[in-house]
Design goal:
- It is a single chain.
- This protein is mainly α.
- It has two domains: 15-43; 53-139, Cytochrome Bc1 Complex, Chain D, domain 2 (Orthogonal Bundle), CATH 1.10.760.
- The chain contains seven helices and no strands.
- It is globular, with a radius of gyration of 24 Å.
- The chain binds heme C.
């Protein structure tokens, strides 16, 4: 066999890299435990910086590319600061499911929407619970 170890490979020299690999694996494992601990900790009040990871993660995954990581807005979408003046959870949930329908019934939104080249997309791929969590979280001022 051509791949048989050469005589000159001392056991010591061959063991080293795998030991390093092992400690990297241990480190990765340790980090994932830290991550788990962080998820489980804290009382998840909406004002908490450790706010419900699910809602925040949903926001970062679905909304941040247009509204910005903290909802500050961008050329793609308006700021979310102060949106709680215009929305309640029920209505915002409906908006996330079918924005065009809500926009068509709201002069402010219709006017505002003309400033942006892209539209507010639908989020029908999210579950009703996820849309609710997201709506609640956005209105609690934590984008
Ligand atoms: C492709 C870019 C884009 C993404 C992604 C996006 N939005 Fe929007 N969003 C918009 C645009 C454009 C508007 C303005 C629509 C209008 O005013 O007619 C808007 C409007 C809004 C408004 C109304 C703002 C107001 O002034 O009342 C809310 C609330 C909102 N988005 C929340 C979200 C949430 C939550 C997500 C993620 C689930 C999200 N958006 C994802 C583009 C986006």
């Amino acid at each position: 066999m051509s791949s048989a170890p050469r005589q000159s490979d001392t056991p010591r020299a061959r063991r080293r890299p795998s030991a390093r690999g092992l400690s990297a694996a241990a480190l990765a494992l340790g980090l994932s435990f830290v991550g788990l601990a962080a998820c489980g900790s804290g009382d998840a009040t909406p004002q908490d910086p450790d706010a419900p990871p699910s809602a925040r993660e949903l926001f970062l995954a679905n909304c941040a590319r247009c509204h910005g990581r903290t909802g500050e807005g961008s050329f793609m979408a308006p700021t979310l600061a102060g949106v709680e003046q215009h929305w309640d959870v029920e209505r915002l949930q409906r908006y996330l499911r079918d924005p065009e329908k809500v926009i068509a019934q709201d002069e402010r939104l219709e006017k505002q929407g003309r400033k942006y080249t892209s539209r507010m997309p639908t989020f029908q791929h999210l579950s009703p619970d996820e849309r609710r969590a997201l709506a609640q979280w956005v209105l609690d001022g934590r984008p």
